[in-house]
Amino acid sequence: MEKTEEIKEKADYCLKCKTKPCSKACPMNTNIPEFILEIVNNNYKKAYEILKENNIFSHICSIVCPQEEQCEGSCVRGIKQTPTQIGVLERFVNDWAEKNNIKYDINIKSEKKYKVAVIGSGPAGLQAAYDLRKEGIQVTVFEKEKELGGILSYGIPDFRLNKKYVNEIIEILREIGINFETEKELGKNLNIKELLKEYNSIFLGIGAEKSTQYDLGNFEKIYDSDYFLKAYNNKNFIKDLGNVVVIGGGNVAMDSARSAIKMGATTSNILYRRDEEHMPARKIELQEAIKDGVNPEFKVRVIKAEGKNNKIEKVKCIRTEVIDGKAIDIPNSEFEFKADSVVFAIGLKPNREVLEKEGLEYNEKGLIKIDEKGKTNLENVYAGGDLSESKSTVCRALGSARKAAKAIIQNLEKGE
What we know:
By secondary structure, this protein is an alpha/beta fold. The protein folds into 3 domains: 4-99, Alpha-helical ferredoxin (Fumarate Reductase Iron-sulfur Protein, Chain B, domain 2); 115-209 and 350-414, FAD/NAD(P)-binding domain, CATH 3.50.50.60; 211-344, FAD/NAD(P)-binding domain (3-Layer(bba) Sandwich). Helices cover 36% and strands 20% of the residues. It has helices spanning 4-13, 21-25, 32-40, 44-54, 58-64, 86-99, 123-134, 151-155, 163-175, 192-198, 225-233, 251-262, 283-291, 352-357, 394-414; strands spanning 115-119, 138-143, 179-182, 201-204, 210-211, 222-224, 243-247, 267-272, 295-298, 300-308, 311-323, 326-338, 341-344, 348-349, 381-383. The strands form 4 sheets. The chain has a 5-stranded parallel β-sheet with strand order 3-2-1-4-15, sandwiched between helices. It has a 5-stranded parallel β-sheet with strand order 6-13-7-8-9.
């Protein structure tokens, strides 16, 4: 935790703009100048209340959100100078509240007769459940895994996000009357038509769960990032990883490569087809990965795996050059890279087969089709998070869930 005088200096640096471009760039529209002003006034409790009133995930967002792309990326100070360190300030306030055992009181409106089912307990599902419950609506959250939290629990490793913050939110949601049912999966023991007989509306927040891969050949020890990170987070460490190659360049690739080291890999290497400038991972995540011993190789495309008896011994690669942001293969530049295991971290997509069986329509990007309020083509069924937008962040998932929850509430009240 940073020293108080350093924090005060960082807070004073903020211009407290009336137009609040930082707040507009925040998917949750956090009132950033207002909470920073309270830091300047040494009123940390008020700053904490401003943050929590708007976003109960504030502590988590301060840790995992790419502020440089969102709030800090729109800071007026950042046009000619360094932007205000909003993420640092937000984390300081939350750490201070935790240290001083300050709690935020949640007010629930009078009980309503409506019941809403939320499928998925990741950030989108939990946010939708929270916003609905605050209005006095009865909410049940269904989760396919044994553990609640979705990507917050099994997708983001503990070295990036302490799971106690996830568990604290789930406990708060239980306390305000939200019901949770685990090992309930859409397409298996859950069905939209059947649920709508009991519930007035449904919010889908099941995320993108199908890994994007391409054919490297018929070999063992080729993993997708979802499986790989679940293994790490559940402490079911994958043995004998040997030399690991992670294909991809996003934050998930960084998490996978660092998890490989912590699971005992001999070496952990990220092979990324573009240059560092075009790498989608946060710079801080790349730096942390290198610090942990990860070796990043840029402008390299993996073509196929090679080995004997279904065991990988190496991957065949080709050098690339980046032209207008696109990776172009350089002719006659093939080379071999030692590898025993490969992890694909080039993106996840929704489980189309299951969702289409439920009658849901897709858009041209392969995502669930929703309108501006988060409504799907099915009556009284809404969606948010990775299911309906590509490259979603935790904060963007929260924002999309809030929008959908608001629309659900308006729709229910309209039907009174």
